[in-house]
Amino acid sequence: MSDSMFDEIKAVKVEMVNGRPRVTDEQTIADMDAEEMKAAVSDFVQSARKFRELNSHAATHAPYASLGNAWWKALEFLALADSRLKEAFCGRDRSPDSIRLFHEYRVRLLVLVPVPYRTDA
Q1: Of 18, 29, 73, 102, whose CB has the highest number of CB atoms within 10 Å?
Q2: CB-CB contact of 40 with 88 (8 Å)
Q3: Residue 36 CB coordination number (10 Å)
Q4: Residue ranges of the domains in the chain?
Q5: Is the pLDDT of residue 115 over 50?
Q6: End-to-end C-alpha distance for the chain, whole angstroms
Q7: Which of 117, 113, 85 has its CA nearest to residue 99?
Q8: What 3-state class would DSSP assign to 66?
Q9: How far, in Å, CA of 1 to CA of 54, rounded?
Q10: How far is CA 94 from CA 33, 52, 66, 82, 99, in A?
Q11: CB 115 within 8 A of CB 51
């Protein structure tokens, strides 16, 4: 038999720190970004549901004044959640393409509000 690169055996040593595998800074940042994105999506979807519920109730059953500040607070929370999601999605990139992709993603979230949405897709 001839030797080839597929016959080579390599040993990989996993560095351990405090009994756990050592994690690189890049992996830590990626994990933090993924958690922030997950939280931002959840916050946006919940805020959109609440606002949609109050807005439809006010439009069909009662005037906006009967809701007091609840409608305005729901609108404010939706705006804050939208801003958080935009920051998590776009980061510092505010190019037209990035904003377009963010808008398409946000529309998909709003259309699929009743359905759980994967953030790692």
Answers
A1: 102
A2: yes
A3: 15
A4: 19-111
A5: no
A6: 45
A7: 85
A8: helix
A9: 75
A10: 18, 28, 39, 15, 6
A11: no
